[in-house]
Design goal:
Radius of gyration: 20 Å
CATH architecture: 3-Layer(aba) Sandwich
Helix content: 25-40%
Largest sheet: 8 strands, mixed
Number of helices: 10
Order of helices and strands: EEEHEEHEEEEHEEHHEEEHHHHH
CATH class: Alpha Beta
Strand content: 15-25%
Number of domains: 1
CATH superfamily: Ribokinase
Structural class: alpha/beta
Number of strands: 14
């Protein structure tokens, strides 16, 4: 087991670097920095209905993988972005597994992270059924200091979550250094949906809430009205609509776009929002048109829900290429979809390549 993260991560299962044209000796060595809590996720799928009190329910499928902030970190790295993560890891077996999976297998830079002695890893059990999920989590606050944001590397972008009083000084410092801040927000369990939560949007380049969150915060009645209101507060406003796609306004370019989602058979929606943000962040840093960014984010999210778990369900370029090749050769997609994704012709390598990705497995490891 590794005990230190690598500042120069090993390559992952992708040979495509979407930011190759931007790289220079004087540029940041890190593309995206993020911080948060890493969970061990245990996901049950194939449930016919929600668990019923007083009964035993058997699931037809099960997978285990790193979760929480690991979902987005893995999704970013699998798309070729050099990703650094600051998080606390327990010194138990779950912590060993999550550390090794993210550092050694995925190539995420864990230099800003640390092992917390005597602290057990947070755990989430997720049950997927009827296209939705129910989660039960357990964990304790990590010992201080919980993350080493002081070791934050200079990066092209950072990802954070907006909440009153929770945007750290590191976000302000990163913004001052020129990093693009991409933000989302969590569900407000109080039901107040205080607009002051959005006060720190002035630090952000892009804000990507889901439709319900966006409409609550803006006091509007449609995703389209919500994104228009948010566009007054942040340069790039994106409102996700789940399987229906996403709508966005980019005030820096004057572009507006509303791109429908792709119809797929969803196995587990865990982490789909994180994968969407990773896809949109990739396209933004690479300088793609707004509609292409939304389409790519929709595609990566759609590919992710066809696998178990959050982090290890994230697609790499091999799966994007395989989907596009299948769509072109076999069909099954509408002419509108084919036109919408034609930008992939110039983006993808000529062949799919042999780039296998790790997937969630029923257990975190077998004894040899």
């Amino acid at each position: 087991m590794s005990t230190t993260g690598s500042a120069h991560p090993a390559p992952t299962g992708s040979s495509l670097d979407p930011l190759a044209a931007l790289r220079s000796d004087g540029g940041p060595a890190t593309d995206v920095f993020l911080t948060g809590t890493v969970f061990l996720d245990i996901v049950f799928t194939g449930l016919d209905h929600a668990p019923v009190r007083g009964t035993e329910t058997w699931a037809r499928g099960m997978g285990s993988s790193p979760g929480g902030v690991a979902n987005m970190a893995t999704a970013l790295r699998r798309l070729g972005l050099r990703t650094a993560l600051a998080a606390a890891f327990g010194d138990d077996m779950y912590g060993d597994y999550c550390w090794d999976a993210l550092s050694d297998s995925e190539g995420i830079d864990l230099t800003p992270s640390h092992r917390a002695k005597g602290w057990h890893s947070p755990v989430t059990v997720s049950m997927a059924y009827e296209g939705e999920r129910t989660m039960v989590s357990h964990g304790h606050e990590a010992p201080r200091p919980c993350v080493s944001v002081a070791a934050r590397p200079r990066s092209r972008a950072c990802v954070t979550s907006l909440a009153p009083g929770r945007v750290g000084d590191w976000v302000r410092q990163a913004h001052a250094e020129g990093s693009l801040i991409f933000a989302d927000t969590g569900w407000d369990e109080t039901g107040a949906w205080d607009p002051d939560t959005l006060a720190d949007l002035s630090l952000c380049h892009a804000f990507l809430p889901n439709a319900t969150e966006a409409m609550h915060y803006t006091r509007t009645d449609s995703p389209e009205a919500a994104v228009a209101a948010l566009a007054e507060l942040v340069p790039v406003a994106v409102v996700t609509k789940g399987p229906k796609g996403a709508v966005a306004i980019d005030g820096t370019t004057g572009e507006q776009a509303d791109v429908p989602g792709l119809r797929v058979e969803a196995l587990d929606p865990t982490g789909a929002g994180d994968v969407f943000m990773a896809g949109f962040t990739t396209g933004t840093l690479a300088g793609w048109p707004l509609a292409d960014r939304l389409a790519f984010a929709n595609l990566t999210a759609a590919l992710s829900v066809q696998h178990f778990g959050g982090s290890l369900s994230a697609p790499g370029w091999s799966e994007v290429a395989a989907w596009w090749q299948y769509a072109r050769r076999i069909g099954g997609q509408s002419p509108e979809v084919m036109r919408r994704y034609s930008f992939l012709d110039d983006l993808l390598p000529g062949g799919r390549g042999e780039w296998p990705l790790l997937r969630a497995t029923p257990t975190i490891g077998f004894r040899s």
